[in-house]
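In the current project phase, the collection of sequences with tokenised folds has grown. One resulting record follows, to show the layout:
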Amino acid sequence: MKEIANAEIKRVRSLQEKKFRDSLGLFVVEGDKMVSEALGSGLEVVDVYRRDEVGEKTMERMSGLASTPPSIAVVRMPSMPAPEILEGLFLALDSVRDPGNFGTILRIADWFGAGAVFASPDCVDLYNPKVIQASMGAIFRKNVLYTPLPGLCAEFRKAGRQVFGTFL
């Protein structure tokens, strides 16, 4: 078994909280599928931990999931350049606070080929572990930008693009 220092275990575990993700510029993905998606995404994967290499107890201490995943990866947050407002579909989310809903919407945007997803500043954090799990890898394929939506809609209209909205 590969020995992992307590400080490293605590650092990985701390990434469950937004303040630590933001200060370190890192986020964590859990499970073989998500680790595989991260490795194939082009993002910088800082560390990968596998249960058969570090042991069940160590993985249990690092994981935020109820059942211990077979693998965990620590990934550097990318800088997200603003997409050009050209042709295609873009999605804007206003005040989506439930992480599972946000991740599911990202998955749907990915399936429909949305060019980017815009989120109002009060939406849930993109790197929330529940958003990541619910996105099922879409987080690695969709550019998500947090921005005030009224100004964004005005920019789209100024560029001659149609803007549609839906409400509950």
Q: What stands out?
A: The chain has a mean pLDDT of 93. The longest strand covers residues 45-50. The first helix runs from residue 6 to 14.
